[in-house]
Amino acid sequence: MKYIFSEETVVVPENVKVHIRSRIVTVEGPRGKLTKDLSHIAVTFALPEEKNKDGLQTIRIEIHHGSRKNVATLRTVKSIVDNLITGVTKGYKYKMRYVYAHFPINVNIEKGDDGQQMVEIRNFLGEKLVRHVKMAPGVTVEPSKGVKDQIELTGESLENVSQSAADIQQICRVRNKDIRKFLDGLYVSERGHIAEE
């Protein structure tokens, strides 16, 4: 079944500028600038001149004659744009805790050759292997102040922050052992925003 017309709307806060050209969305706000290429998704963006009842600009995302799957992409695009707006206004912060039973995990934060931060993990399960994880662009890592065995990943792009956290968690997977018993690793303990309300 085809849906003749479907649309979603995104409300843009006052301190954010959104520019869309050939489905490449650029969002500029107090925390910086983010760009996302959505040219592979067949949706139409409309920036109406008139503002909504609260005096804020809105973005309309539309699709004509779409199947059920095509209409599902509308909500995805809306979520992506919302995440970009949240990123440039509040930013994203992920907290990761070290979990170990016997061998204390040592985590060092270093600068790579290209200026990107790297996380170095030593003594995981007592192994001599040193694990290195390179952070995605725009992601900063620092040890938590006042909390032992915790690091904080911060950045404007939700995709980059969450991917960096996933990379750290994945590199500390326990292999060839019963994972119900060996729970060691670095795990995301908390997700939030840099600018707390």
Structural class: alpha+beta
Please give the largest β-sheet. 4 strands, antiparallel
The fourth-level CATH homologous superfamily of the largest domain is: Ribosomal protein L6
First-last Cα distance: 44 Å
In percent, how helical is the residue content? 10-25%
Run of helices and strands: EEEEEEHEEEEEEHE
Total domains: 2
CATH topology of the largest domain: Outer Surface Protein A, domain 3
Family: Belongs to the universal ribosomal protein uL6 family.
Organism: Knufia fluminis
Protein name: 60S ribosomal protein L9B
GO molecular function, one term: structural constituent of ribosome
At a glance:
The protein has 197 residues and is α+β, with helices and mostly antiparallel strands.
What can you see in these coordinates?
It is built from 2 helices and 13 strands. The strands form 4 sheets. Strands 11-12-7-13 form a 4-stranded antiparallel sheet, with helices on one face. Strands 1-6-5 form a 3-stranded antiparallel sheet, with helices on one face. A 3-stranded antiparallel sheet has the order 2-3-4, covered by helices on one side. The radius of gyration is 21 Å and the shape is elongated. The relative contact order is 0.17. The mean pLDDT is 92. The protein folds into 2 domains: 3-89, Ribosomal protein L6 (Outer Surface Protein A, domain 3, Alpha-Beta Complex); 92-192, Outer Surface Protein A, domain 3 (Alpha-Beta Complex), CATH 3.90.930. By secondary structure, it is α+β, with helices and mostly antiparallel strands.
